[in-house]
Amino acid sequence: MRLFAIARIAILILLAAGSALALDVTVTNSPYNAVxxxxxDDSAAFANALNTIVDDGGGILTVPCGNYHFTNQITVNLxxxxxxxxxxxxxxxxIHCANTNGLFWFNNTSxxxxxxxxxxxFTADQAGAVTAVxxxxxxxxTAPVTNLLMDIFNFMSxxxxxxxxxxxxxxxxxxxQFINFxxxxxIRGPTIHGILIDGVNSPVFDHGYxxxxxxxxxLTNAMGNVVxxxxxxTDVNTGLWVSARSSSNCTVTMKNCHTNPRWKAxxxxxxxxxxxxxxxxxxxxxxxxxxxxxxxxxxxxSIQGCNFHxxxxxxxxxxxxxxxxxxxxGVLIKDVIFNAAGATNSATAVRQDPGVTGVTNVxxxxxxxxxx
Length: 372
What we know:
Blueprint lengths: L1 H18 L3 E4 L16 H13 L3 E5 L2 E5 L3 E3 L5 E6 L5 E5 L4 E5 L6 E12 L6 E5 L10 E12 L8 E9 L2 E8 L8 E9 L2 E8 L3 E30 L5 E6 L2 E12 L3 E5 L2 E2 L9 E6 L2 E6 L2 E2 L11 E6 L3 E6 L2 E2 L9 E5 L4 E6 L2 E2 L6
Parallel strand pairs: 1-2, 2-5, 3-6, 4-7, 5-8, 6-8, 7-9, 8-10, 9-11, 10-12, 11-13, 12-14, 13-15, 14-15, 15-16, 15-17, 16-18, 17-19, 17-20, 18-21, 19-22, 20-23, 21-24, 22-25, 23-26, 24-27, 25-28
């Protein structure tokens, strides 16, 4: 609970910073003159408005209700400013990607900027719309660091032939927050990532949903406290993937999350502490090689109150519900239900590779034909 309290404090700080911003620009007003509903390109209007805000030292871009279209991706250098882009609500203020480059690239060159995106929908109008929102500078490997807050937002596709390849891509983020979100690719398609962050300190994902993407949340070079709370992921290859930065402390807390994957629900590598609490995992259709939770080279692992549910399709003998790999140590598995009702063959409840030490099982419920 302490991690969630810290996350809420961070959100309040960001919101307070946004409320104090002096400049409030409306993208439909002169001299920007974006026109919703006309089907014409609005990307230049958004670029001009955002650059005006940055040049003024920060502010708010208001996006009134309506459908806006981007035939070009826009690039905005946040510099050392605080920028908030605020719509009238999801499904109300909608930005359509009508190109193959994406929507926004916030190209950072400073270590002291903040970006807040709220109350908006982003949608792909064609196949291969690449990245919807990018917050990064690929030429920089360790700095700068951006503080990103995205809340009350969703991504969607107009039909089965329209999709983003990536929805959110970022590098070097400090305490980013993703709150009340939906990332829905429509049907299973070639989308690779819902949220991809390389180099991240203490991210929070709270009350979210991802569907029909490759990896729902993909974190590499992670540090600090990773919090995943009440996020539901379905028909994904992998729900949550966290790889800790070498020689850095990284804790992962996943609570009350429901994951319905094709291959993996959770994969954590190199974390100094992992808590997987009160979660549910079961297979998606067409699943044959399902591993629900994989912990690799992790220490101080607690898996409590989780439920590994039924196998609907395929050969359940190929399913492993918990896989402990590498030098994972200090594992408590408690009050866990290993239940693959309807499975026709035996499955493995806990697979423990050579090198894994200190595994304790307490008060778990295991169907007899499973291996524990």
